[in-house]
Amino acid sequence: MEMISRDEVVKRLRPTLGLKASASEIESFQNEVLRPILKFQNDLLIALTKHYLIRHHRNFNALKLSAQETVLTQAAKQDPEFRNQLIYPVVSLLTAEELFLYHEHRAEFNKRIAQMATERVKSQLERLY
To answer: Residues near 82 by Cβ (< 8 Å), separated by ≥ 6?
Structure first.
């Protein structure tokens, strides 16, 4: 039986999104690698956010929708624990080759991952109750 490499396995896990190609290396990486991983990790991101809110924002469900979105946005920007909980599940599914590019632009990709993950969670607030 042929052994499949870890890199092949993680690539096969990613859904195909059919996004337009981009001229920018960073945007291409975002659309071809990060967005499919975020989609694949959606349920995990929701669960991690739920656990975070239970520990740090017990009254979250009592807040108005706009206040809930603000809590999530601010947490992703200002709370390193929450920010890392959004970033690490994505980085863990990069291939070895992708990891090199990620490290070259780590700050930029971390910012993009946190923003995209937060927007993903905010678009599914009903799943946090």
So the answer is: 49, 52, 56, 75, 76
- Unique residue bearing structure tokens 């999530």: 72
22-50: pLDDT as tens digits = 789 999 999 999 999 999 999 999 999 99
Residue 22 CB: number of other CB atoms within 10 A? 13
With CA atoms as reference, report the closest residue to 37 among 107, 122, 120, 106. Answer: 120
70 part of a folded domain? yes
Is the distance from CB of 90 to CB of 37 less than 8 angstroms? yes
The total domain count for the chain is 1
First to last CA, the chain: 45
The verdict on residue 19 lying in a domain is no
